[in-house]
Amino acid sequence: MAGNSRLTVAVHALCWLALAQRHGHTGLTSDQIAASLDSNPAAVRRALGPLRDAGMVAAGLGPGGGWSLCTPATGITLAEVYAAVEPGPVFALHPHQPRQDCPVGYGIAPVLDDIYDRVGRAVAGELSRRTIADVLDTVLRRHPLPVPWAGVPAPRDS
């Protein structure tokens, strides 16, 4: 079963925006973000929409516009990103009620609901301990790019 990658895409884009901000850029276009994701600009806009709605990023129009962080990367937890892109529980119960005259169908929902609730709290707890800045710093420290890449936003001249 394939996992959902919305959180990963959102964290990647936020880290890219944070790196650009560190280099003095006020924003990146959807094309620039898409280049890092090896994706397309429309997918970037879909991925960043929930983050914009949650107040983490803003989209500016016209020259000098583009996507930018509204909050410092040190203040955005992965739990907040997860809540924005994956609203609702980590796991869901049946899409319809199972047979109530079946011994498993009758009692499985409350048992799984309790388990899923504990899993959700554990996921939220772990994600709340990490920020976008933490992820970016870890990426840059543990996996530095061995050669310069032309797509990295160069520092702006002051």
UniProtKB/TrEMBL annotation:
Coiled coil found in the keyword field: no
Keyword Glycosyltransferase: no
PROSITE patterns: HTH_RRF2_2 (PS51197)
Domain of life: Bacteria
Any one GO CC term of the record: cytosol
InterPro entries, per database record: Tscrpt_reg_Rrf2, WH-like_DNA-bd_sf, WH_DNA-bd_sf
GO molecular function: DNA binding; DNA-binding transcription factor activity
Alphabetical UniProt keywords: DNA-binding
Protein name in UniProt: DNA-binding transcriptional regulator, IscR family
